[in-house]
Design brief:
The protein is about 85% helix and about 0% strand. The chain contains nine helices and no strands. Helix 4 packs antiparallel against helix 5. The chain starts with a helix and ends with a helix.
Length: about 180
Amino acid sequence: RRWRWQIFAITWLAYAGFYLTRKSFPVAKIGIQNDPSLEMSKLQMSWIDTAYLIAYAIGQFAFGIAGDKLGTRIVVLVGMIASVVAAVVNGASTFTILFGVMWCIQGFAQSTGWAPLNKNMSTFFSQRERGLVMGFWCTNYALGGFVASIIAGWAGDRWGWRYAYYFPAAMLLGVAVLFWLFQR
């Protein structure tokens, strides 16, 4: 019984945690547009968003399969670490092309969460109880996105747009450590 609720909690936190770095670019866009050291147009930002979404969609298939082959713990941890690295590089970047490449990598990293974590949940909860359990578990994306936007916005407003990447990345790194310790 303890394992079931431990897995519920850590997988919930893991998926909600992915939103920390997923919300960085949308929140940082205003600061990026106002930064005289960057010359990034709205059109370029839209292409960066498109690259992210294409990578995310492709990654959903690839990492669903990888989760079956390698296991949830490995796939999700690698995704979290890749997400942290991509966010930090984006925060430090001054080149539009690098933003695009890193946000594309971010899309792949973000896609490591959903399928493997859902599969992991299905191993710990019976088919009879999954509807109710997954109903509660799926609050992770709504609450994760809400809280992540606030955190990135607060950090970006307080210290500048780059911290809309750095601060959430540091928090996701903390979630990754917890996931490594408590996920089975």
